[in-house]
Design brief:
The protein contains 15 helices and 32 strands. By secondary structure, the protein is an alpha+beta fold. Among the domains are: about 130 residues, no CATH class; about 150 residues, YVTN repeat-like/Quinoprotein amine dehydrogenase (Methylamine Dehydrogenase, Chain H), CATH 2.130.10.10; about 100 residues. The strands form 8 sheets. The chain has a 6-stranded mixed β-sheet, with no helix packed on it. InterPro entries: RMC1, RMC1_C, RMC1_N, WD40/YVTN_repeat-like_dom_sf, WD40_repeat_dom_sf.
Length: about 650
Amino acid sequence: MGGEDYYLELCERPVQFEKANPVNCVFFDEANKQVFAVRSGGATGVVVKGPDDRNPISFRMDDRGEVKCIKFSLENKILAVQRTSKTVDFCNFIPDNSQLEYTQECKTKNANILGFCWTSSTEIVFITDQGIEFYQVLPEKRSLKLLKSHNINVNWYMYCPESAVILLSTTVLENVLQPFYFRAGTMSKLPKFEIELPAAPKSTKLSLSERDIAMATIYGQLYVLFLRHHSRTSNSTGAEVVLYHLPREGACKRMHILKLNRTGKFALNVVDNLVTSVIFDIKLRGESDGTVTFHHPVLPARSIQPYQIPVAGPAAVTSQSPVPCKLYSSSWIVFQPDIIISASQGYLWNLQVKLQPIVNLLPDKGRLMDFLLQRKECKMVILSVCSQMLTESDRATLPVIATVFDKLNHEYKKYLDAEQSYTMAVEAGQSRSNPPLKRPVRTQAVVDQSDVYTHVLSPFVENKEMPHKFVIAVLMEYIRSLNQFQIPVQHYLHELVIKTLVQHNLFYMLHQFLQYHVLSDSKPLVCTACLLLSLESFYPPAHQLSLDMLKRLSTANDEIVEVLLSKHQVLAALRFIRGIGGHDNISARKFLDAAKQTDDVMLFYTIFRFFEQRNQRLRGNPNFTPGEHCEEHVAFFKQVFGEQALMRPTTF
């Protein structure tokens, strides 16, 4: 299998820690994403490493028994260590605070602590087999204050730090789950819900296993994922993942079922809003029965890309070949959303999705775009797909190209509308509203006209081997899509079409596009009109067409003249200004300057004579007045054509 087939990979720079062994115990904190390597109960050292902090935290603590659980509070301010089933010990890591340990015993009589979770830098939850206890830690007083507690029989628990939700498993079958939500010193009890267990023979005692449950945020919503292993006696083709949506308010509902179509052991991760082990995307269309949407894998199943463990040590030693990593090892432990830990090898990896290999595994371009537009790092892959579908070897049909452009512009329009709404709200003084307005985030899914022009259309037009009819059809399809979504078309796209038509001598088609406003008028199209003026010698109607176009842009008359002069179209500028009746008020010097810069003496003669005639008509004298500042041009005219060429005043 080629490397291009693998779409899942382990990150290049894993967190490396001391392997688990009889002396060294390894713990993972799901909130801070930190690995703790605890040697000899901490007496010979504790090393804490996380994916983002390359400087590990190292310290020692007294060996006061086996460590069951160890975690820092958020921001690493307070360390909590559980050594017994009744108490949790604390130690401050705050400057100028006492580092003497202090202890908190669980309040519920005869209860055993199953574990604890930090919900902030100074708030912690004890989960016992008889309920939960929510505390505020007071580091300066070296004590804890009970904020709230709730009694309930607990089999096991799960914590989602991103959502600050703890899930408690209750009842004999362990399948009734009670969620609690924590925020800023408050604990809220959410409605409990039941996980539907698969049918099983009566002789089998079935219960919900903690291993088959995960909590993860997908597309901004919290879900409980249940890996349901179907009984071999059932008619099912394999296991499935059931997604229960857990809202802040309202009941938890079964929303999606992911059909794995396989049996065996599975590890669930959520990467870039995709559920793996095989790839599922709940945003893509599935089959619905009215309450639940069924999804099949988006892609064919693939292993994680083979991974080489680099050899650590001095430079002389590192020249050795890297050691292949045993994938899907029995020592692997999976944590949400995207973490894989091998305690026996001493590595913590983030699982990643590679988008480029997926391009060849999803032949349906529309579905591929739906998939890519939801991914974080999608823009360059999307642009490469657009370029690829316009190549000779992989050329897509126009309806497919239209579908792709429409999907891109749908996202583009959503962003433009959100940005406009935000701007209007700020201008209306709503920026201090509660909750405060948030500026729309420009994600990589926003592929704008400059992106498509630079990376797709411009190189595409430069390809001389591509049939020009197809080139023009693609350009017009993109403009059609922009118009459909009421997105103003940028002038450089119109210019690209016009230049392409001119290049292939398709003047009549250009005439039609402009006459019937397929290429719409706008101020930046002054440059386009100027381009048309220069085509008069090839296509005579181009001149009148351009003037008509310029006249329609009536608000830009001065700008039109400036552009024409800058492009040395001096006569065209004069014709235009005469056409709109403004030639009596224009600056003679500006036109004479422009004419002189062309180094065309006959053009200069024509422009000079025009203004002499204007002076004669308006003032009865062809000479320029001192206020017109044309002395140097009069001198130049005399130098080139002689004084006798100057126009004489006409007397009646």
